[in-house]
Design a protein that fits this description.
The complex is a heterodimer of chains A (271) and B (346). By secondary structure, chain A is α/β, with parallel strands linked by helices. Chain A has 2 domains: 3-89 and 156-227, Rossmann fold (3-Layer(aba) Sandwich); 229-271, no CATH class. Chain A has 9 helices and 12 strands. Chain A has helices at 41-49, 71-77, 93-98, 113-125, 141-155, 171-187, 199-205, 223-226, 229-236, and strands at 3-12, 15-25, 30-34, 56-61, 64-65, 78-81, 159-163, 191-195, 208-213, 216-221, 238-244, 251-258. The radius of gyration of chain A is 19 Å and the shape is globular. Chain B has a single domain (4-341), classed as ABC transporter involved in vitamin B12 uptake, BtuC. Chain B contains 14 helices and no strands. The longest helix of chain B has 36 residues, at 64-99. The two termini of chain B are 30 Å apart. Classes of the chains: A alpha/beta (271), B mainly alpha (346). At the A-B interface, helix 2, strand 6, helix 3, helix 4 and helix 5 of A face helix 1, helix 9 and helix 10 of B.
C-alpha cells in the first residue's frame, strides 16, 4: 500500500507549520525524517497518521484519501508513536499495551487469544515482560517509552510512524530499538518512518533520509547523497564533518560546533 | 528487543488469573453489600419488621401492614437510592476518563449547580409548585451541561479536557452567584433550599423510581459500549485517535451520558456529593485497574447511597439527616484510609 502526500498544508493557530509538502513512500521503505526543532516534523507525522486534519492537501493510502478509510481499518495500516507522554491513571503495563489492540476489537468481545499473543509478543520485543503487571506511572521515562512502543507493536500496523522514539532510552535500548525497526522492515516488510535527531544514526540505519526545514522538504534521498556538510550547515546551523568510521565503514557525523552569526560560512538568518 | 516471535503464554495465564480473581472478589463484595443493604433498608425504620417477615414479604407473603410499609414505602425508596447512586458513580467514572482528571465529578460539568439553581428558583419564586421540582432540577442540570460543552467547544479543534474543566469552573461560578442572589433575597426559604441541596430520599416513591431507571439503564449501556474507547482516551487524544477511536464523538457521548445520569439523580435526590468522585477511585483500587470498572462501580455507587440513606434514616431517628452529609461522613474517611494503605497509590 503506497503512501502519497500531496501538497499538504497545515496551519496551527496563525503559524504555517507545513507549507505544501508532497512526497511518496513505497511499501517497505525505511525512512528517517530529520530537521531542526519546530520545522514541522511532528506535524507531518501527525497529518500522515490521520490524527491531525490538514488545512489543505491530502494523504492517500493506496490511492484512496486517508479520510475515506474507516478509522479502525486505517489504524491497522498506520500506527503512530507520538511524543506526548500522557500517563494514564491506574493502568498496568499490560492494559496499556492492550489498547493497541483496539482496531481489532468489537464492542462485545473482549480480548481474544490472538490479541493476547500480540500483546505478549510486544512485551517480549520491547523487553518489558517483567514489567507487565506494574503500573505505568511507577515506571521510569525510558521504561514508559518502551511501553508506548510495545503498544504500537501490538497494534501491528503495516506502516509505523515514530516521533523521536529514542527519547529517554538508554544506549542499549536505543540500539535494540533501531535493530528491531530494521528487523520489522526487512523480515516483516513493514514501512517504517522515524523522526530522529541523531544524524549519524539516521545515516547508518535508514535507507532514505527526508530533511524538513521551515515546513518544507529541502532534501530527500539516500543518506550518503542527502547528508552533506553544507546541508547540515544550512539546516541546523552547525558546522559538521561527515566521515567514515574506519573499522565498520559506517558513516559518522562529527559536529564541530554552532555556526555563529558573524561566521563567514554563515547560513541564512536565524529565526 | 531482539528475541522475536517466541511467545510464552504462561505469564498471561497467571496474570489473568490474578486479575479475574480480583474482579470476582470485588463483584461479590459489592453484590453482598447491596443485598444486605436492601434487606436492612426494608426491615429497619419507625416500624421494625423482623428479617424473616421481610423475606416473606419479598417472596409475596407476609401480613398486610408489613406489605404496605415495605412495598409502598421502603422498597421504592431503597431502589431510588440504588439507582441514583449507580447514576452518580457511572457519571463520575465517565467524566474522569474523558477529562483525564481524577478529580472530575458531576459537579465539574455544571450539572450539580444547574440543578441547584433550578431547584432554588422553584423553592423561592414558585414555592407553591414544589411538584415540578424534579423536572425543574433535571432541566436546569441539562441547560448547564449544554452550556459547559458549548463554551468548551471550538470550531476546528472541538472540545478538550482542559477547556471542559475551565468552562465548568466558569459556569459553576456564574450559577453559584445567581443562587447566592436568590438566597439573599429569599432568606426565609434558606432551610428548604439547604435541605434540598444536601440531598434526601425522604418520601421518594415508585414515581421517582420511574424517573430514574430509564436513565440508569441507558447510561450504563452507553458507558459499557464506549468502555474500550475511554480506556484508549486515557493515553491522550492523539494516541486514542491513532488506534482508531473517534475522540470527539466519544467525548460527546460520555459527556451527554454523564449529564443525563447525574441530572436525573439530582432531580430525584437533590445534591448528593462525593459518590461520583470517590466510587470510581475506590473501585479502581479494589480491582487494580480499569477492567470491569463500569459495572462494578455502578453497583458500588448504588450500595453506597443505599447504606448512606439507611444511616440518614436511622442514626438520628426519628428525625432524618440529609443523605449527602452521610456520604461525606462515610466516604471521606474510607477514602483517606484507602489512600493511606493502598500499595497502588504509593
Amino acid at each position: 500500500m503506497s503512501l502519497v502526500v500531496k501538497d499538504l498544508n497545515v496551519r496551527l493557530g496563525t503559524a504555517e507549520v507545513l507549507k505544501g509538502i508532497s512526497l511518496s513512500i513505497d511499501p517497505g521503505e525505511l525512512v528517517a525524517i530529520i530537521g531542526p526543532n519546530g520545522c514541522g516534523k511532528s506535524t507531518l507525522l501527525r497529518a500522515i497518521s490521520g490524527v491531525l486534519k490538514p488545512t489543505s492537501g491530502s494523504v492517500f493510502l493506496n490511492g484512496i484519501p486517508l479520510r475515506s478509510h474507516k478509522r479502525r481499518m486505517r489504524a491497522r495500516i498506520l500506527g503512530l508513536l507520538n511524543q506526548v507522554d500522557v500517563i494514564p491513571m491506574m493502568t498496568t503495563v499490560r492494559d496499556h499495551i492492550a489498547i493497541g489492540r483496539f482496531p481489532y476489537r468489537n464492542y462485545l468481545r473482549n480480548e481474544t487469544e490472538h490479541d493476547s499473543m500480540a500483546i505478549e509478543q510486544a512485551l517480549e520485543l520491547c523487553q518489558i515482560t517483567h514489567l507487565a503487571d506494574r503500573r505505568v506511572e511507577m515506571l521510569s521515562g525510558g521504561e514508559r517509552q518502551r511501553v508506548r512502543l510495545a503498544t504500537l507493536l501490538a497494534q501491528a500496523p503495516s506502516k509505523l510512524l515514530l516521533d523521536e522514539p529514542l527519547t529517554g532510552l538508554d544506549l542499549e535500548h536505543q540500539y535494540a530499538l533501531l535493530h528491531l525497526l530494521r528487523e520489522l522492515n526487512e523480515n516483516m516488510d513493514r514501512t517504517v518512518i522515524v523522526v530522529l535527531h541523531d544524524l549519524s544514526l539516521a545515516m547508518r540505519y535508514f535507507d532514505r533520509v527526508l530533511v524538513i526545514d521551515d515546513g518544507q522538504v529541502v532534501a530527500d534521498g539516500a543518506p550518503c547523497e542527502v547528508m552533506t556538510e553544507s546541508l547540515i550547515a544550512t539546516v541546523f546551523r552547525v558546522k559538521a564533518n561527515i566521515g567514515v568510521e574506519p573499522g565498520t565503514r559506517n558513516p559518522i557525523v562529527v559536529c564541530q560546533g554552532k555556526i555563529e552569526d558573524d561566521d563567514p560560512e554563515s547560513a541564512p538568518e536565524h529565526d | 528487543m531482539s528475541t522475536p516471535l517466541s511467545v510464552t503464554t504462561r505469564l498471561t495465564a497467571s496474570h489473568n488469573q490474578g486479575k479475574w480473581k480480583r474482579i470476582l472478589v470485588g463483584s461479590l463484595v459489592v453484590i453482598f453489600l447491596t443485598v444486605a443493604g436492601i434487606l436492612l433498608s426494608l426491615a429497619l425504620g419507625a416500624v421494625e419488621i423482623p428479617l424473616d417477615q421481610t423475606l416473606r414479604v419479598i417472596f409475596g407473603g407476609g401480613n398486610e401492614t408489613d406489605r404496605t410499609i415495605i412495598i409502598e414505602s421502603r422498597l421504592p425508596r431503597a431502589i431510588a437510592a440504588l439507582l441514583a447512586g449507580c447514576n452518580l458513580a457511572v457519571a463520575g467514572t465517565l467524566l474522569q476518563a474523558v477529562t483525564r482528571n481524577p478529580l472530575a465529578d458531576p459537579g465539574l460539568i455544571g450539572v450539580t449547580a444547574g440543578a441547584a439553581l433550578a431547584a432554588t428558583i422553584v423553592l423561592t419564586v414558585l414555592p407553591s409548585s414544589a411538584a415540578i421540582l424534579p423536572m425543574a432540577a433535571f432541566v436546569g442540570a441539562m441547560i448547564a451541561a449544554v452550556a459547559v460543552y458549548t463554551v468548551s467547544w471550538r470550531p476546528g479543534s472541538g472540545s478538550s479536557p482542559m477547556r471542559m474543566i475551565l468552562a465548568g469552573v466558569a459556569i459553576n461560578a456564574i450559577l453559584g452567584a445567581v443562587i447566592g442572589v436568590l438566597i439573599t433575597a429569599f432568606a426565609d426559604r434558606i432551610p428548604a433550599i439547604m435541605f434540598w441541596t444536601a440531598g434526601s430520599f425522604n418520601g421518594r416513591g415508585w414515581g421517582h423510581v420511574d424517573i430514574l431507571w430509564p436513565y440508569t439503564l441507558a447510561g450504563v449501556v452507553m458507558a459499557i459500549w464506549i468502555r474500550a474507547r475511554l480506556a484508549a482516551m486515557e493515553l491522550g487524544d492523539d494516541s486514542a485517535a491513532t488506534v482508531g477511536v473517534p475522540v470527539e464523538g466519544t467525548r460527546l457521548i460520555a459527556f451527554a451520558a454523564a449529564a443525563l445520569l447525574a441530572g436525573s439523580a439530582a432531580s430525584v435526590a437533590g445534591l448528593v456529593g462525593f459518590v461520583g468522585l470517590v466510587v470510581p477511585h475506590v473501585i479502581r483500587l479494589l480491582l487494580g485497574g480499569n477492567t470491569g470498572l463500569i459495572p462494578v462501580a455502578a453497583v458500588a455507587g448504588g450500595a453506597l447511597l443505599l447504606w448512606s440513606d439507611l444511616a440518614a434514616r436511622m442514626v438520628l431517628a426519628p428525625s432524618e439527616m440529609p443523605v449527602g452529609v452521610v456520604t461525606g461522613l462515610i466516604g471521606g474517611p474510607y477514602f483517606i484510609y484507602l489512600l493511606y494503605r493502598s500499595r497502588w497509590l504509593q
